[in-house]
Design a protein that fits this description.
By secondary structure, the protein is of the alpha/beta class. The longest helix is centred in the middle third of the chain and has 11 residues.
Length: 292
Amino acid sequence: MNKYVLWHIQGGLGKNVAATSLIPDLKEKYSDRKLVMVVSWPEIFLQNKSIDRLLHLGNTPHFYDDYIHNKDTIVFRHEAYNQSAHVHKSQHLIHNWCDLMGLEYKEQQPQIIINYAQQQLVAHWKRDRPTMVLQTNGGPFVGQKYSYNWCRDIPMELGQAIVEKFKSQYHIFHICRKESPQIPDVERIDMPLENLQLFSILAQSQKRVLNDSCLQHAAAAFKLKSTVLWVGTSPKVFGYRIHDNIEAKKTDVANQRIGSYLFDFQFDNNLHECPYLSAQEMFDFNEVLSRI
């Protein structure tokens, strides 16, 4: 009779990319079992031969009878975000998963496997000058409550300063949402793309300035050092050593966190939680520009 180990991952695209880091370790520890993964972004895992069965979250017909009922299945369906170390921001998301699944944490990095057809997507982003990727807005391309998510996005004034400094040297791809403000002198990418098509924009870029979103996880997977700006989230929890991580300056908090429970700031962008009065309070623009 087949034996299985099930890993259930729900959440955003970046979280799924981060999870790719532990597939080799999970497969090695449970080498006598078939690895079944139920995930929210299956396209990130499609080329991984260590996965025996890949299923899309919410599309799992006959799952109970196939993998649970009278089956020898080890189930990992924990939410790493709810663990003490994550709530206290004391260790990385990947480390939390290791603790939950009994794996050794070795600062594992994401691994995205790109097939031959997907490799051809890179040619779409060739331009007549070296390219730079600037991602000012994170999270889903649609469904955001406001055009600017203070907790994760790069302030528009800083984005404009970056473009002004580098526009003569680089063709700049600006990754943002449709409702985001316009920045002159960039090629704006604001439409939803297939995930690996979006990631392919990184491949030939000479510089990358990113926020806490899927592209900084993908850049780590492709071993592309990037400048990553952090506001309400932490590189200790979601970042990677390969990047130059720049955190927003700490500021006094008044009563903004009146509705906060286990986490200080919410990803869904509660405007009243923002403790900054200006973009300059968040970042020293000159420092950021000098480090790119």
